[in-house]
Design a protein that fits this description.
By secondary structure, this protein is α/β, with parallel strands linked by helices. The protein has two domains: 4-135 and 297-354, 3-Layer(aba) Sandwich (D-Maltodextrin-Binding Protein, domain 2); 137-295 and 371-430, Periplasmic binding protein-like II (D-Maltodextrin-Binding Protein, domain 2, 3-Layer(aba) Sandwich), CATH 3.40.190. Helices cover 41% and strands 13% of the residues. The chain is built from 19 helices and eleven strands. The chain has helices spanning 10-14, 34-41, 43-50, 61-73, 88-94, 115-120, 143-148, 159-169, 190-200, 217-233, 243-251, 265-268, 311-321, 324-334, 345-348, 351-354, 359-368, 392-407, 413-430; strands at 25-31, 53-59, 81-84, 122-123, 126-127, 130-135, 137-142, 177-180, 255-261, 280-284, 298-303.
Length: 433
């Protein structure tokens, strides 16, 4: 259903300065997350306003990353818009692989984009991708199970509390697991979670001389803690679970806690989709008292590959999908709890959105992430749940496979870490570090 009258500001979108005179068909590669699926359902609004039509290529997260990376590096030209994130954008922008978004119309209001998101999607001060939504990570938990365990979740808990609560909330006979965490291999899947978590334990990927640190006590503590907790309180088959799999488990009432992307909050509290919608609380990602929390910083963003034949139409789509007016459109159709979060300052100044139960914790989580100083000890890199160097995606995917194998019981934490250390050292030496 489209409430065209709901967009009093639709004139702004009609005045898109970057518009083209003819109607085009643009092809967009995107991830199969709920907010993107919702956007596809609203695309008719864009077509009505501009005349352009959209063809969607919707892919699982790991597959999307592989497909768009291959396409951009080989100049394949399959896509007019790619859904990418804070890791790829500055690197690809520096390489000249993306079209700058420095000519968006005034009413788009680039300055309204949250500084953390704008900075992470820029290179040398130029915006190369527009955030569709921004996120950190936080704890989503069952308030009823927490109460039944005789516990009260702090706003800013420690990992020891979370682990104790997870074990007390677990009832495997009734398929209730105290904690659901990512285990699926991938640099943006299990390694996003484990890298962010390792920061809280005092670990780091590299020291100041780019020497890999998987042989450190801090990484051993991180991985051992995670594996023991998942063995005691996690669901079966966790090595296959990424964002969407854990979302489904939580919505089915099978998770006491889930630490993952803040964007999931609207889906776990949706009465249409979640069996526990009225029993969900939120807290900051855990720490260990060392000064860093285990929360990440990310944006799923829309970027235009250099060489597209449909640059003008692609910019019109980005203007539509990442605008203030799009947020109003979603709110009119789906309610304020379901608008894309974490991208615009004005959203968090909106009194309607202030009433959404997870809005405040989402913003606090985003603002507390520090990609410039992500670790307890100094590091030579930028990035909270990733290392912002071109080699990282390949290395972390291999490391993620070793850690996932350990979660599946195929090797010990010590064996996984030894392999991670060796393969990372080899890759960094080959890259000339």
């Amino acid at each position: 259903m489209y409430l065209r009258h709901a967009l009093c500001a639709s004139a702004a979108l009609s005045l898109i300065a970057v518009g083209s005179a003819q109607a085009d068909t643009i092809t967009i590669a995107t991830v199969n997350n709920g907010d993107m699926i919702r956007m596809q359902g609203l695309t008719e609004d864009f077509t009505e306003k501009t005349g352009h039509t959209v063809e969607w290529v919707t892919l699982e997260e790991n597959v999307l990353r592989q497909r768009v990376t291959t396409d951009i590096t080989t100049k394949g030209g399959q896509f007019d818009i790619m859904t990418i994130g804070m890791y790829e954008t500055p690197i690809w922008g520096q390489n000249g692989w993306l079209i700058p978004l420095n000519d968006m119309p005034a009413e788009y209001d680039v300055e309204d984009i949250l500084p953390a998101m704008r900075g992470g999607l820029s290179y040398d001060g130029t915006l190369y991708a527009a955030p569709f939504y921004g996120e950190s990570s936080m704890i989503m938990y069952r308030t009823d199970l927490m109460e039944a365990a005789g516990l009260e979740m702090p706003d800013a808990p420690a990992w020891d509390f979370v682990a104790d609560a997870a074990r007390k909330m677990t009832d495997k006979d009734n398929e209730i697991y105290g904690i659901c965490l990512r285990g699926k291999a991938g640099w943006g899947e299990n390694m996003a979670f484990l890298t962010a978590t390792s920061n809280a334990f005092g670990a780091r990927w590299f020291d100041e001389n780019w020497t890999p640190q998987f042989d450190s006590d801090a990484w051993k503590e991180t991985l051992t803690f995670y594996l023991d907790l998942m063995a005691d309180a996690g669901p079966p088959g966790a090595s296959n679970n990424g964002f969407n799999e854990n979302l489904s488990l939580f919505q089915q009432g099978k998770c006491g806690m889930w630490i993952d992307a803040t964007v999931a909050a609207s889906f776990v509290t949706s009465p249409d989709d979640s069996t526990v919608a009225d029993k969900v609380g939120f807290a900051l990602a855990p720490d260990t008292g060392k000064g860093k929390r285990g929360n990440w910083l990310w944006a799923w963003a829309l970027a235009i590959p250099a060489g597209t034949d449909n640059e003008a139409a692609a910019k019109e789509f980005i203007n539509w999908a990442t605008s203030k007016e799009y947020i109003e459109l979603v709110a009119s159709n789906e309610g304020w709890a379901n608008v894309p979060p974490g991208a615009r300052t004005s959203l968090y100044e909106n009194p309607n959105y202030a009433e959404v139960p997870f809005a405040k914790m989402t913003l606090e989580s985003i603002l507390s992430a520090d990609p410039l100083n992500p670790t307890v000890d100094p590091v030579p890199y930028v990035g909270v749940q990733f290392v912002a160097i071109p080699e990282f995606a390949g290395i972390a995917t291999e490391v993620g496979q070793e850690f996932s194998a350990a979660l599946a019981g195929q090797q010990t934490a010590e064996e996984a870490l030894a392999k991670a250390q060796a393969l990372t050292a080899d890759a960094m030496e080959a890259a000339g570090y």
